[in-house]
Amino acid sequence: MQEAVQYRNQKELFGHPVGLYILFFTEMWERFSYYGMRAILVLYLVAEATSGNPGLGWTNAEALSLYGTYTMLVYVASIPGGWIADKFLGQKQSVLVGGILLVAGHGILSIEEMWAFYSGLGLIIAGVGMLKPNISTMVGGLYKPGDIRRDKGFTIFYIGINIGAFLSSLIVGYVGEVYGWHYGFGLAAIGMLLGLIQYLVGQKHLKYVGNNTNKSIDPEEKAAMKRPLSKVEKDRVVVLFVSFILVIVFWGAFEQAGGLMNIYASEKTDRMLMGFEVPASWFQSLNAMFIIIFGTVVAAYWAKRKLKGKISTSLFKMCIGLIIMGTGFFFMTAAAAQFNSEGASAMYWLVLAYLFHTIGELCLSPVALSYITKLAPLKYASLMMGVYFAMTGFGNKVAGLLGESASDLGEYTVFTGIAIFCVVFGLLVLLIRKKLENLTHGAEDNEREISGDNEGFEIADPKINEAQ
Question: What is this structure's pTM?
């Protein structure tokens, strides 16, 4: 069968398809450009227009409002990006188009004109919308259904994302704050160009993944694209949409990092370390650094837990991730309390908050990406990934609104409220977890470790196969 040939012919490196590492480096450079620009965007907006490194001189509320809207649109654009891939281009070509748009967008941002600022943001929104959902779907497509390596593959992919984020926050952040904001934006464009070149060179390792399924020569794929959704598929879509609520809440809290917490680090944190003032943008690198350090540790913990027969389903991990991340905001509560009493807060509060946020993210985000590739119907694979990123976008907008509210409510109230809500909401979803997992019809029940060419592996439950 074509499917057996597809998985057998994939060259492997360190136990995973080589194509994973092509996508790893493509996404690493894309995230270098995106997070590099994100690290300095709000700081650029609030910087005085008459300073030595002039910004736009906006108020904090104005900057956070634009930040929330922009980051929301970046991810909401994943819906049309996924739809275009499903209907017309396929994921592989859509990633290419997205990369070209991103190079253009970041490049235009380096021009010191307002038309260039808004045009650049628009091109970046379109580029991320085309690239982000489709490259993630391609990662899932590298693995045969039921292959437990899929979650591990997404964790490796996720580490690539955060290597890019870590380097960009340090390099682009430093260049932007010290030498000029627009030099930082231009450096982000160079990073994306490197990612695009690497993606083109590695196409031979992506031969069987991300193609336009509407042009597929596989009769089974064609039939799957044309037939209406089965009851099993509809139930799984319902579970996905419930999980998307978790995603909105999570990112609505987490994305304070680029907004309110970024400004807080700049304005209310004592950043002196042995005579050196730590740039505010450097705190953006903590999340990525912790992911690189703890990514495989957290993945190994969940794998061992699964082998011992303990609860380790995707929904369980996502709920635990939300609770851990929410707990991290109690450290920001302590930071705000210290500022209110002493006039400045210590840097270690931010470090502890980012540590907990990172552990929570590792429990939720790569798992959510993998979950979608397990539950989404083939005909809507990219679209459902696009919806996931759109929910991430709505979470970003919520983050912006919460950040704006700090102008009236104060950071202490906002940070504490976020912490309590995330913990309580995560616990409530845990209470209904089993009912939701019943609707997946065993999508995660048949995973096992697969090595070699994977030939001969099939999902064992005949009821599932019949229903599909």
Answer: 0.71
